[in-house]
Amino acid sequence: MSLAIDALLLERVDGVRLLGPLSLRVAPGERLGLVGESGSGKSLLVQTLFGVLPPGVRQAGGTVSAFDTPLDHPGREFDRIRGARMAWVPQDPRQALNPLLTLAQHVALLPGVHRGETPRATLGRMAPLLERLGLPTDAGFLRRFPHQLSGGQRQRLCLAMALSCDPGLLVLDEPTTALDPLAQKTFLDLVLELQRERGLAFLWITHDLALASLACERLLVIYGGEAVEAGPAVHLLSAPRHPYTARLLTAARRQPSVEAGFLPAPQDRPAGCPFQPRCPDRQGSCVDWSPWQGTPDHGLRCDRPLQPAE
Ligand SMILES: Nc1ncnc2c1ncn2[C@@H]1O[C@H](COP(=O)(O)OP(=O)(O)OP(=O)(O)O)[C@@H](O)[C@H]1O
């Protein structure tokens, strides 16, 4: 398995639950989309995978492994995977790139650490990919600093860095948020092309159900840190069963929503289904979390699922 997360539970140090228990699997070459709105715990999940949880948050339960290697504890095995076999494309390249390093130095960074490759060798090896990503390889361009690149170029530089050690798994954390619609489409097409050619698996994290369904074959929808529905992208898009998935679909279609309010803060989360205070189809039993129905890959947690239209 490229990625296996079992019953992962993240808490604040005062015991307030932030995410989970969450389980998911990404098979080699598979494209899984994790969809949820702001505050649902997407970034914390990525930080867990790369061993950089912020102070004040701890893993209180569950296991995480990539390529059958546990990622729960720092160590040599973890370091061999992080940034090499499993690479991260960040949400905000401005924060991810070092303002004091040139484009060439960024590209040479991970292969230097993981393979002991010289910058010259890395740049030679990476030149075709850089060109393909629309990043010229002449000396003048390679000497540019991040602030001398456009937003789209910065994000494609992050993608080049993520691919620099030929990973088997990409974790894309809202990678197109900072891009205009045209640049978003270019970026998505590029990632999908490279994914097909290289047989890459990826976990694409986003709040945008429409984008996730373009990028991924399978989706997992989370709300308030908990999985509410999972299934093939075409099914969730054509016949969502959890009212929250239907809400995301309405948002993706830019239609007004019927339910009011916001995701409650972690310490104010309700009992039962986390969406129940906002759910238009709420009933009394929603305060008890109904068990997951179906398989982990295609199922939902809801006492009153939407019925497919006749
Ligand atoms: N260092 C921290 N200490 C305490 N709580 C935190 C910390 N970091 C995040 N949280 C809380 O954990 C929850 C999940 O946050 P997270 O940043 O993972 O959400 P997200 O889904 O990535 O949102 P966005 O899409 O806005 O980035 C939020 O309620 C957030 O306030």
UniProtKB/TrEMBL annotation:
Which SUPFAM superfamilies does the UniProt record give? P-loop containing nucleoside triphosphate hydrolases (SSF52540)
Q: Where is the signal peptide?
A: none
Q: Subcellular localization, per the record?
A: Cell inner membrane
Q: By its UniProt entry, which Gene3D superfamilies does this protein fall under?
A: P-loop containing nucleotide triphosphate hydrolases
Q: Pfam families given for it?
A: ABC_tran (PF00005), oligo_HPY (PF08352)
- How does this protein lie in the membrane? Peripheral membrane protein
Domain of life of the organism in this record? Bacteria
> Start and end of every ABC transporter domain?
3-249
Alphabetized UniProt keyword annotations? ATP-binding, Cell inner membrane, Cell membrane, Membrane, Nucleotide-binding, Translocase, Transport
What family, per the record? Belongs to the ABC transporter superfamily.
UniProt protein name: ABC transporter domain-containing protein
Which species?
Geothrix edaphica
